[in-house]
Design a protein that fits this description.
Blueprint (H helix, E strand, L loop, with lengths): L1 E4 L5 H4 L22 E6 L5 E5 L7 E4 L2 E2 L4 E10 L6 E7 L6 E6 L4 E7 L4 E3 L14 E2 L11 E8 L2 E6 L2 E7 L7 E7 L13 E5 L1
Antiparallel strand pairs: 1-4, 2-3, 3-16, 4-15, 5-15, 6-12, 6-16, 7-8, 7-15, 8-9, 9-10, 9-11, 12-13, 13-14
């Protein structure tokens, strides 16, 4: 598992006022929620679970690497609770040594962002649908199922240096980039700041498969 400071600048301002789902964590002996983090643990029904309500994780992102073969990358994702305007999704063409990867993130409000990370920083990739007037890199799409506990299938097909992105088997966007072709894929979760998350009462809880 890797952890780093999240890229969430701009999306909070874009979606100010959107409410969050409130899902209480079990209380401890004095009635307050137990602070804990579950990092990408398999569940009995085939999902991989990430959950945290720990304030130490504000403004951080988490991801995990899995070996992958082929040029088609896909992952199903669903968010149960946490800031609605904060991304979760899939890394791919990733390297578990250098930390390089491509990334597709979505939000429960129907936005997505395509990015890549070198060994030190994450930057937005300009895609066919990127709005030049929107400097935060987020694009709205009606191919994304909006809301909490909604399953979205993220799929990327790579042909040479061209990538085709689909949500729920509907082609949505494309871009060209030749930076990475590493053999790892994995889940990704970003945690917002203390103004946008409601820790410890409401955790960030996301599932992948």
């Amino acid at each position: 598992m890797k952890k780093s400071k999240s890229f969430i600048a701009g999306i909070a301002a874009l979606l100010v006022g959107i409410s969050f789902m409130l899902t209480a964590c079990p209380p401890d002996g004095d009635g307050s929620p137990v602070v804990s983090t579950t990092e990408f643990v398999s569940t009995n029904d085939g999902w991989v679970k990430f959950k945290t309500n720990d304030p130490e994780n504000f403004d951080y992102s988490f991801w995990r690497y899995y070996q992958h073969e082929g040029d088609t990358y896909e992952l199903e994702v669903k968010k149960i609770s946490g800031a609605s305007n904060t991304g979760y999704g899939m890394i791919f063409c990733a390297d578990n040594n250098s930390g390089e990867y491509y990334l597709v993130m979505i939000t429960t409000t129907g936005y997505y962002r395509v990015a890549k990370r070198n060994s030190t920083e994450q930057t937005t990739i300009d895609t066919e649908n990127t709005d030049p007037a929107n400097d935060n890199g987020w694009t709205e799409s009606d191919t994304i199922e909006k809301g909490y506990n909604k399953v979205n299938k993220i799929k990327v097909v790579k042909t040479d240096d061209t990538f085709i992105l689909s949500f729920n088997d509907e082609e949505t966007d494309t871009w060209t980039d030749s930076s990475y072709n590493h053999p790892y894929i994995g889940p990704y979760v970003a945690i917002n700041n203390e103004q946008n998350e409601d820790f410890p009462d409401t955790p960030v809880e996301v599932y992948f498969k």
